Structure formats: C-alpha cells, structure tokens
Amino acid sequence: MSAPAESPHPAASARISPKLGGATASGAATPAGPGPAPHQQNGPAQSQMQVPSGYGVHPQNYIAPSGHYPQGPGKMTSLPLDSQCGDYYSGLYTVPTQNVVTPNTANQQPGAQHMYGRGPSAPHIVGSTPGSFQGATSPTLHLHTSAAQRYSHFVNHYSSPAMYSANSSVASQGFPSTCAHYAMSTVSTAAYPSVSYPSLPAGDPYGQQMFTSQNAPTVRPLRENSFSDHSTAISHPSPLPPPPSHQYHQPQSLSGCSTLSWSASGLPSTQHNIVRNHTGSLATANSNSTNTVTDSLSCPVMQNVQPLKSSPVVSTVLSGASSTRTPPAANRPVEPVASVTQPSELLQQKGVDSSSTTSSASPMPNSYDALEGGSYPDMLSSSASSPAPDPAPEPDPAPAPAPASSAPQPSKMTKPFGYGYPTLQPGYQNATAPPNSGVPPSSPGYSGFQPYAQQYPGMNQLSSGLGGLSLQSSPQPESLRPINLTQERNILPVTPVWAPVPNLNLDLKKLNCSPDSFRCTLTNIPQTQALLNKAKLPLGLLLHPFRDLTQLPVITSNTIVRCRSCRTYINPFVSFIDQRRWKCNLCYRVNDVPEEFMYNPLTRSYGEPHKRPEVQNSTVEFIASSDYMLRPPQPAVYLFVLDVSHNAVEAGYLTILCQSLLENLDKLPGDSRTRIGFMTFDSTIHFYNLQEGLSQPQMLIVSDIDDVFLPTPDSLLVNLYESKELIKDLLNALPNMFTNTRETHSALGPALQAAFKLMSPTGGRVSVFQTQLPSLGAGLLQSREDPNQRSSTKVVQHLGPATDFYKKLALDCSGQQTAVDLFLLSSQYSDLASLACMSKYSAGCIYYYPSFHYTHNPSQAEKLQKDLKRYLTRKIGFEAVMRIRCTKGLSMHTFHGNFFVRSTDLLSLANINPDAGFAVQLSIEENLTDTSLVCFQTALLYTSSKGERRIRVHTLCLPVVSSLADVYAGVDVQAAICLLANMAVDRSVSSSLSDARDALVNAVVDSLSAYGSMVSNLQHSALIAPSSLKLFPLYVLALLKQKAFRTGTSTRLDDRVYAMCQIKCQPLVHLMKMIHPNLYRIDRLTDEGAIHVNDKVVPQPPLQKLSAEKLTREGAFLMDCGSVFYIWIGKSCDNHFIEDVLGYPNFASIPQKMTHLPELDTLSSERARSFITWLRDNRPLSPILHVVKDESPAKTEFFQHLIEDRTEAAFSYYEFLLHIQHQICK
Amino acid sequence: QCNPLNPLVLSEYLIHAFFCVMFLCAAEWLTLGLNMPLLAYHIWRYMSRPVMSGPGLYDPTTIMNADILAYCQKEGWCKLAFYLLAFFYYLYGMIYVLVSS
C-alpha cells in the first residue's frame, strides 16, 4: 500500500532513485548514519534501504520491502497489510514496541520488522512518508538498538521533511503533521545530534529534499533520499559492517516483493481499504483492519504489536491526523521501544521520540502526499473530491515552521514547492500492495512486478485501489496512472478537460497566471534538453494575452519597476532579498526597489514592497508613461474596404454590413478622435469624401489602378462624431448604389495599396470585404484549385501563397501600425492561401464565409451579422508589441499566430484583439539544474482605443523537474495538441500535408513509446499511456480528421486553408472545440449539476464520446464544434422533446433547414436554450445552429465530426490505436 | 528588414558562378571540382527559396524563427570559411604558376 502511494507521488523520483536507490541511499545513509550500526541494524537498515529503494525505484522495490517485512504484513497490500498500515501508524509506533517485545528471533524479528515495515509502508503508502515510517519502524525493529533509534531518527527526519513538505498539504494525514513536524523538528534536531551526524546528514538531505521538494522531482528524490537515508542510516551502520545483510535483505525483499505482489492480488481490496483509510485518514477502520490483518498475518510479533498499539494508535492516528495527538501516542510506543532497545541513548530517546514523531512521520508520508496533495487539492484533478484539501490549512502553517527548523540544515531553503508527483506508477503500486505475507525469497520483485503490469486488467482494481490510496490526497499519481489505451473504452471524461495545475506550492499556485491566458505544454519543465528529447513531447507556450478579463488590476505609477538588465517587469515570483532589493526571477540580477515602490497604495502602508499589486497578481496592466511611446498615442482609425463587384452585390453582404455598422456606430471602441473611412472597389476604386460640411457624401472614382493615388487625402478619413450624419447617409445609400453594376472584375490589390496610403500616417484597422478572386492590377491571382484533387489522399498543393504581394503589403502595413482584417465571402475558390497573408503578417484576423448569400444561405448571413457585431464592438489595441521573456536557459524559437516577428523575442502587432491566440515553441539551451522554477513573462504594450498607452503583463511560473516521469506527469495534453497543430500547419505549408500528418502520428508514437520504455523494460503487448496523456491519441486522430489535415474526404482548398488559419490564431479553448467537438445529449436535460449564470440555470449534461454508438435514435444530441452547433435529432426521438423544444409536432414535420430554436415557454425548451446560449457566450465566432435530422442530407456534415468512427478514408479510434501500437513495436 | 541583404544574395551567387565559368575556361578542373558542390548548393538554395517577387533569399516573416536564423548564420560562416580558404588557394595557385613559369 505504502508502496503504491509513494510510488504515485514520487514515481519519477522513485524511478530515478530506485536506480540509484541502493547506492545513493546507502551512500547517503553512510554519511548520515555512519554511526555504529549493528548487524541487526544493518539488517533493518537494509530492509529499510530496500524498501526505500524499492519505493524510489519501483513498486517492485516496495513490494520487496514489504516482502521482507513480510512479508508480511506488508505492504502487503492485502488486508493484512492494510491492517498493518492502519496499525501502522500506530503500527510504526507499535513497531517499536513490537521490536521491543519481539526482538527475539531474528527471523521472527525480521518478520516483525517486516510487518512493521509493512505497517509503515502502508502508512507510507498512505502518506508519502510511508517509507520513512517503514524505515522508522524497521529501524526500530531491527535496531532495537541505537541504530534503530537512529533510524527512527532518520525516519523522523524524513518524516519531518515530509512533514514539512506535507505541511502545506496538511491533509488528512493529519498527522498532526504539524505537530509531528514540530515534534519532529525538535526531536529530530535533538535526536540528530544525539544520533549524531548520521542523522544530521539525513536531515540535511531530507531537508534539502524538503526544500527541493519545491520541485516535484526533487521532492521525490528527496523522498528517495529520505528512504535512502533511512536505508543509509541503516546502511550506515550496515555500510560499515553489514553490506551482506543488505544483500541479504534485498533478496528477501525481492522475493518478498514478488510473493507479495502475487499474494497482493488477492489482497488488493484490503489494501485499498487500507490505503483509503490512510488517505481517508480514517484510522479506525484501518486499525481494525490492520488488527485483523496482523492477526491474519499471524505473526506473533505482529499480533503483539497490534494489540499494543494498533487499535489505540490507529485511532489516535486517525484523529491525530488532524491533531498532534498521534504523535504522543506514537511517542509512547516508541519510547517504550526505545527504552527497550537502548536505554543508553538518551538522544535516542529523542530519537525514539523522533521515531514516534516518525510515526507521526509516517503520517508524514501521508503528509507528504498531503503535501503534494496539498498542492494537489488545488490541482483539482481527479482527486478533486478528495478530502485532502482539508489538510491544507494546517499544512500551511506547518510548512513554515518546519522549513524553519529544517532550514538550517539544508543550504537551499527554497520554499517548498509543489510536490513532486508521485512518480510511481500504479502498477508498481499495485505490485507493492500485493506483497504476500509469506517470506518470499524466490521471485525477484521484478518478476512479481511485471506480472502486475501485464496483468493490467486486473490492475484496474489495483489502480482503483491505488486511486483510493492516493486518491484523496494526490491527483498527481493520477496523472501518471498508466492506462491501457486499447482496453479503455471510455477514455473521454464526462466533464470538460481542465488545464493541469503546475505542481507548485500553494502560495505560488494562487499567484500563478490563469491557464486561460497562459499555458505551457509541459507544466513540469524538464531540466535539460536531453530530458525533453527523451520525453518526445513538444515544449511550448500558448498565449491568449488580450483576453477579455473581468478582473484586471490596473496600476498607475510613475515608475514601472523592471529588472535593469533583462527589463522584466516585477512580478509575483521575484524574491525580495530585503526591503530594498529584489532579485529578478528571469536573469537573477539583483535590483533596487525604488522609493515609490515601498509605498503600497492599496493598503496605504509603507515598507511592504511585497504587498504591492504588481507582486500580488500575475496578470496586471500598467498605464505606461511617455517612455513607452514612439509617438503620441494614435486615435482609433477604421477603414472599410468593400468589394462592390457584381459578385458582391449578388451575395448581398453590403446590406448586412451597413446595417451592423449603423447599429454599432456608437459602440465602436474609440474616443473623440476616432476616425472612419470607406472605400469601395470593383475594377476601379471609389473613395468617399465625408468631410464635415458637405451636404451629402461625395464619391470619387480613381480608375488608374496601376498607379493609385488619393484624390483628397485629408477628407477621406473623417472624425466619426463630426461627420456622423454623412456617414449614416452613406451607409444607408451604399447597399443600393451598385445594384445594377455589371462590373465583374475585382481590383483588390490596388485598393489595398490605396488603403495603405490612406492609413499610413496614423495606423489603425483596415477591414477588407472580398467576394472573389482578385482579377485586376497588382496582386491578381489565378485559380489554383483543381476540384478533382479535393479528395486526393496524396498531394495537396497550393497551401502556400501564390504571390508575395499580399505579404509585402502586410509588412508595409505592419510597419505603419495598420492591420488588415479579411472577410472573405465567396462561393468560389478565392485563393485564401494568398489573400490570408495580408492579415497574417499584419496581425489582423480572417473570417471566411463559404457560399455566402444573404437569402440562399441565411445561416451564413446570420453568422456574418453576429460576427460583425462582435468584431465592431470588441476591445482593440493599436500599435502593439508583445515581448515574451523566459528564464535564462530557455529560449523561444518559433512563433505561431498572426503577427510580424521583429526580433527574436519581439512580436509586432499592429492591432491586438481579444480573440487572438499565440503559440511559442521553446527549447532548453542551458541546463536548468540550478533552479527549481522557471518563469515566463509576456508583456503586451498597446494603445487602448481611448488613447492610453498600456502594458499588460502575464507571468507564469512552472517547476523544473529532473525525471522523465515528472515530465509526463505534467503534460498538458490540450496545449500540446494545439502546439502540435500549429507546427503541423507550418509543416504542411513548408513541406507537404502528408509530411505534417506523418509528423502528427509520429508525435504520438514517439511519446508513447518513450513512455512505454520508461515504465518498464517489458515488451508490452499493450499500449500504455500515462493518464495525463490518455487523450493524446484521440486528439491527434481528431486533428488528422480535421479539415485542415484530412485527406481522402473532399475538402475545398479554401476551407482547408481557413482551418489552418484558425489553428494558427485561435486561442486554445476555442481551438480545442474545433479539433475535438463536444457532444451532449440534450433531450433529457436536467438541473442536476446545473450552474447558475446571470440568474439563469444552465444544465450541464455530460460529454459524450464522438462516436455513432452514442447516438441513439431516441435521443437528440448537440454537438459544439466551436463555430458550428449541430443538433441531431434521432428518428424516434421523443415527440415531447420535438414539440417542447423545436416547436413541431413530430419528427416528420421538422424542416430540413432549421437554424433556430423557437422560444417556447416550456421547461425543456428553456433548458436547451439556456444551455446553448451559455455555450455561445464569448465565442469569437458566433456559432450557427443547424438542426440535423437523421436521414437528412446534412447529416454527413454532422457525422464527419464523429471522429472516433471509421470513415472511408480514415481510421477509427481503435484502429488508430492499433496502428500506433504497431508503429511502436516496429 | 531583409531589404539590404536580399539583393546581395544573387550577386554573390553570380560572382561565384562567374568564377566557376572562368575556371572552366581555364580548364582548371581541380579548382572547378572544388567549387561545383557550392555551385550546386546555390542553385538548389535559390530554387527552393520562399515565394517572393524580388530577388533574394530571406523572407522577413520567417527569418526571425530561431532555427531558420541559426541555419542562415551557420551557412554564412561556412561560406565565409570556404571563400577564405579558396582565396588563399587561388593565391597560392597563381603564385605557383608565376614562379614556375
């Protein structure tokens, strides 16, 4: 049990450590506890060592330890174990007693020890600290002697560290972790001294660990260390004398492990129980079980122990978890033990105390988990429900003190960061759990272990048990839980997938930037590029910097505090060295705190620079001074360039546009200086003189499109307020002005040149409406699409621009702070690939309405109307630049989005809008070994529509990890997918579509095979993924079936290119819906789990997987594809639903084209509509609703989004998994 | 951004091609052989340049991507070394011919 628990947490560390395991541990131990170690001690130590190593290394190890113990009891995950565990808390304590009692026969003793160990292990499992417990217990047992005490000390130390770390978590561990910590600290310190150096070293390591704990990985190591320490402690003694014993123990342990594991299978449930208990902190049950278990174990010793402590102890522990009580209990038992063991060691007494503390420490392990959990709780993840959070409060306080106590030892006092994830994998855990009671010499832990892994299916129970174990306290384990993809049918969670929370400590977590604005594909940054390469995962950031925020601290200050060398803005993650100086967290330069910064405007107090809003919020906005201006802030300037050729008039967009403009004229963002202008073009270019004072708008026609000039440069862009009447006249007249035009040509290029000339003095926004291929003048384009190639599976050509005219124009515009937004409303091929360049490089946005017609295609017309409303009234920032900085050692190498890259880290954005997302690829240039945190900061400097210069700063802080498992634990699958999609778009443009598709598949294959080889050396017949990556193959498959990348299905080139543009510039949340739509069943909406938004009840139906198997004829389903909603009505759908929601009597009477839900006064209609409205809110592209009847021709559009199903041209999800598996095995 | 640089690319390539032609005329097969790989590389590089209307090689929108930038820089250094070595080799060849004649 303990093993599992630990394993999850420290998994990574465990792995790492395991390898080092024995050696490092022993080494550490030696230093730490070089002291005298009797053979027995050694023995124990060994056993301990083994255990720790086991922990660290693998569950196997764990198992092994347990096996040793015995085998007990072991970890035995089985019930006995549980009982032990339960007891364990008590057990540990008890252990000592047991030891005392039953030191007698060595064998028996070992067994007892094992038992104890198990017991401890169990606790360990429960907490992260089990190891320590085990160690403690085992030491106590083994040692009986002083060594044991030392061990215990060590254990205590460990536990104490754990505690420390735990503090934050607090958690159920309850333990009294705080108490324990305190006790520990005091004791430990005392004990250490007494114990002597060994303990001290141990303490140091662990202290370091604690500190290091900041980094999850480090933490794990720490644990390992601690384990190792224990072991070392043991080993120390042992090293000196008893290596043999180690070996000896190890074998035992191994055998034990194997046996254990096997037996465990039977026992799992009990283990689970135990685990749960531990986790649950309900000791009583555990204690009972433990008692029973022990009984079952039938080890005399065990029994003795049990009787002694178990029940009381356990209970105490449980209760203790919350309070310090347990410690006392532990102490009591311990003390006796101590006395028994070696009275001589007064210190040892302390040690005993410490051991008792250890016992508390064992809780510590829990606390460890709790620590992690503490952080975890925030994590939300699976364990969200977990009670663990509760502990948090306590932990917080505890941590501080603990660190303080421990602080002295470790040089690095870094704050406790998030805990390492428990690295161990479930399988391991399972293995550990299973330990048999019998002494198992024979099979190595491995063998035992493997079976487990292979037995996977069986694992479910185990894993669930594991989950149970860790469950409450730490989600982390969850993120690493191996999942057999081919056997997991319902991979998609029923609730939306949330961003993983970086494994930081609570304080930092609270401060960290919202994942909505700033996400990293790896929430644990690997320490080195080599590690990153090993993980085969993309590293990058996804930004949504100008998102509409409801709460944004705006800071007006004369001096904006920035680092003097790297110009980083002060942020919550800097460290204040003292009152007057702060250390930059990006370049580590020490800067002075300016006088003004000492005063806090919020609290009106002086001398608290760390309370300033800049240091309390990771997203802030500064009002910039004139230092940040190259010229006076520009006014808002809007120019509309409209296609009025025959084609455009036919489509009828002018009516909609003019209507929207008239409605929103007053809502255009801007101040009194706002200017606006209009141009139209067909084969000539028309300007409109709207100068104030004219009686009606004047149209000026320029027919010289080869050399465009501006007829009256001053009066074409006019003040919105002074010429409002003229503008309204023009907008009213425009739709009818060209109704009889016969001009079919379109001179877009020259019109854009004219627009550029018009805008270049000020900069601003140009909105271009185009309905066909430009056919005259500069920038004319040829039709490049061959309709017969649309469904080709081979080569898709012409994804890149045909000419660089638009790109150069965009660069010119960008240089003059002008952005070009493109609205393409065409029914035919318009070479979006070339046209899009004008927006791509000038930081504009692109809207595409295929087959637009105002009467024939009302849904598109409605969409245009809604989009325009949003487009015209949303926030806008002018003449913006965005700079992204990151901690020294990281570097950015490729940017994705719409902008122009002016230098390696500076993006020039003529306009910024709230719907623009960006992605950045990162590489690790220098090893990050000397830092535990990395930070990223984006600073967006822009001119608001009110003419204010502002800087919006986002800062994201992430932990650095050194183990591969931690890297996997921290994967943000959605971010990774979005980054991959961006990279794939680049690849398909620069190379070919099939290359990009291969690259996507390879990304899955590589990362999963890398993970597979990390998990074990076994030839796995199953496709294993960590739970953090379980959706990876599904999303990649979705990408492959996305319009942008699909082959074999008829896809118009413009549609494809538009999808690519969307991928490049959509923020993550919207992009994910595009890639993987959400499917809901809406014919049975209930208020269960509903949320309330603006007094409206919004039902929250569960997500369904995108497979036809989920569609039943009796149901109605809503699919949310980001820009489109489909409502699919089954053939035998309940007539009540059809009547109440759709307003038709039965299925047959539903019209083929239906794009609205009628406002009916029924409950189900209200629910459905409020749900849809809620989904619609805050989309940059307002989705259109299609009601799709089963059997209607439109249903193919709906079905093509069911990405888990097979199509003529593409794999089903299961086939895709098999394909991947095949690729991996190759 | 790349305006000052782009016109120089083609002139460099032309000068190098001119040298190659001269070596060909002089029947300096060894020297020509040394230069052929670079000539081929130039031709390939120019054929696969991004879509642009003017002469040149460097696309201002992508040049700042770290990998492309790094590639171009590396390419620049390598060619500098090659030209330097070639210069001294030509010098040596010329003096050798002068002395021996």
From TrEMBL, chain B:
SMART domains: Cornichon. It is found in: Membrane. InterPro entries: Cornichon. It comes from the Eukaryota. One of its GO terms (cellular component) is membrane. Keywords: Membrane, Transmembrane, Transmembrane helix. GO terms for biological process: vesicle-mediated transport. It is a multi-pass membrane protein. Pfam families: Cornichon (PF03311). Belongs to the cornichon family. This is Protein cornichon homolog. It comes from Neovison vison. The lineage of its organism: Eukaryota, Metazoa, Chordata, Craniata, Vertebrata.
